[in-house]
Amino acid sequence: MMTPVQQVVMAVIQITVLISIILLIVPVMTFAERKVIGYIQVRLGATRQAGGIRGFAAGINKLSWAMGRIPILSFFRGLPVFAADGLKLLLKEDIVPDRADRFVFVIAPVVCMIPAFATFAVICFYPGTLFVFPDQFPIVGGLPFTGFLTDINVGLLYIMAVGSIGVYGIVLGGWASNSKYPLLGGLRSAAQIISYEIPLSLSLLAAVVLSGTLNFRELSVYLAGVPTVTAAGDVVQMPLIAAVPLFFGFFFYLTCGFAETNRVPFDLAEAETELVSGFHTEYTGMKFAWFMLAEYANMMAVSAIAAGFFLGGHYLLPFGLQRFVPDGIPFLAEPSLLFFFGKVFFLLFVFLWVRATLPRYRYDQLMSVGWKWLIPVTLINLLIAAAIRFAF
Amino acid sequence: MNALFTSIGHNLFLVFGLLACAGAAVMILSTSAVHSVLGFLFSMIMVAACFLCLSAEFLGMAQLLVYAGGIVVLFLFVVMLVELTKYKEKSLFTTQIKWSFPLVLIALGIFAYTMKSNLFDAATPVALSLSSGLAEGLSVSAQNAQMVSRGLFAGFLLPLEILSVILLVALVGALVLAKSERVS
Question: Quick one: which of A47, A121, A190, B39 has the most CB atoms within 10 Å?
Answer without folding.
Answer: A190
